[in-house]
From TrEMBL:
Bifunctional inhibitor/plant lipid transfer protein/seed storage helical domain residues: 28-105
UniProt KW keywords: Disulfide bond, Glycoprotein, Signal
Protein name: Bifunctional inhibitor/plant lipid transfer protein/seed storage helical domain-containing protein
Signal sequence region: 1-23
Superkingdom, taxonomy of origin: Eukaryota
One GO process term, biological-process aspect: lipid transport
Gene3D superfamilies linked to this entry: Plant lipid-transfer and hydrophobic proteins
One GO MF term: lipid binding
Length: 107
């Protein structure tokens, strides 16, 4: 895949993720957008998360982990993003990042 196509796909995924995040918590947009490198992994298109994904994920966990609930609890398919929740829940272990339990999203 050429660099131009990869950049276009990343930009498209970031735009879709921004729309997805804005539907639930508008104040989380700037927190969630940097997670675009995680989309290939959490959609099942990549077998492992990239280094950029893990770095962004660790940053979100340390700055505003509550915003991750918008990704786990929402239905992104209506915005063109189909996140596999089962895979997304493996992201902390895959990136070696300690997170609050997902059950805290319900509080």
């Amino acid at each position: 895949m050429g660099l131009g196509l990869r950049l276009a796909l990343t930009a498209a995924m970031a735009a879709m993720l921004m729309v997805y995040a804005s539907a639930d918590l508008p104040d989380c947009n700037s927190v969630i957008i940097p997670l675009a490198p995680c989309l290939p992994f959490v959609t099942g298109a990549a077998p492992t998360p990239s280094i950029n994904c893990c770095t962004a994920f660790a940053s979100v966990v340390s700055s505003n982990p509550r915003c991750l609930c918008t990704v786990l609890d929402g239905d992104g398919s209506k915005y063109g993003v189909s996140i596999n929740r089962k895979i997304a829940l493996t992201l902390p272990a895959s990136c070696n990042v300690v997170t609050p339990p997902p059950e805290e999203c319900n509080n």
